Amino acid sequence: MLHSALQLSRRGYANARRWLEKVFYDRARGIDTADAVTLDSLGLAAEHRQDYHATPWPMLERALSQLEVRDHDVLIDFGCGNGRVVVAAAMRPFRRVIGVELSPELAESARANVESARPNLRCQDVSIVVTDAMRYEIPDDVTIAYFFDPFHAEIFAKVVENLVASLKRRPRRLTIVYGDPEEEKVLLAAGARLVNSFGGMRPTRRWASENSVHVFELGG
Questions:
Q1: pLDDT by position in tens, the chain (length 220)
Q2: Among residues 183, 97, 86, 85, which one has the least CA distance to residue 143?
Q3: Cβ atoms of residues 178 and 156 within 8 Å
Q4: What are the two backbone dihedrals, phi and then psi, of residue 166, each rounded to the nearest 5 degrees?
Q5: What is the pTM of this model?
Q6: Measured between alpha carbons, how far is 96 from 99 in angstroms, rounded to an integer?
Q7: Residue 48: which region, alpha, beta or left (left: phi > 0; alpha: psi -120 to 50)?
Q8: CATH code, residues 2-219
């Protein structure tokens, strides 16, 4: 009974949050990123892939505000979906912002949101790449990688392997911002250092994890 009540509470909270974010956050930026999208509806459902849920705006803004963004920094968002993180990052002085997305439909939505927000973007070099993240070669100028639980298991492990390969090609410090950090053990095993965490105030451990962000550093 308690479990069912918590599930209903979570769904109600998520629906209310998405509505509020659509009205008070997205509309103010001229974009539309709030709706959740299932991979099944896109014909892309597979083991270890996660449905698209945008990072809650308060969590996202807190995460980005804690980064010291310099004019040479490049951010990449894995599983960018409708482009919320890409747009929010491009409102800061990054040199370049990249979104990686498996779904062509979501990628087109992300591009449309970027164009709608473009007059307010400080970073104008924004690209959305349609590809499988496992096969994507990380550009060697990336300094910040962003994840909001887009995939698990061997997919996440392969992307981390690709990040490490990029650091070997061009040694540097890479900051990893990881919301709902289900696979953080993979990062720690790769040598990443946990440097910050916040959020996570919910009634259950899983719900708290979904609303927490861990920040890691790798290389450097």
A1: 544 544 545 565 566 777 788 887 899 999 999 999 999 999 999 999 999 999 999 999 999 999 999 999 999 999 999 999 999 999 999 999 999 999 999 999 999 999 999 999 999 999 999 999 999 999 999 999 999 999 999 999 999 999 999 999 999 999 999 999 999 999 999 999 999 998 765 445 554 556 799 999 999 8
A2: 97
A3: no
A4: -65, -40
A5: 0.90
A6: 10
A7: left
A8: 3.40.50.150
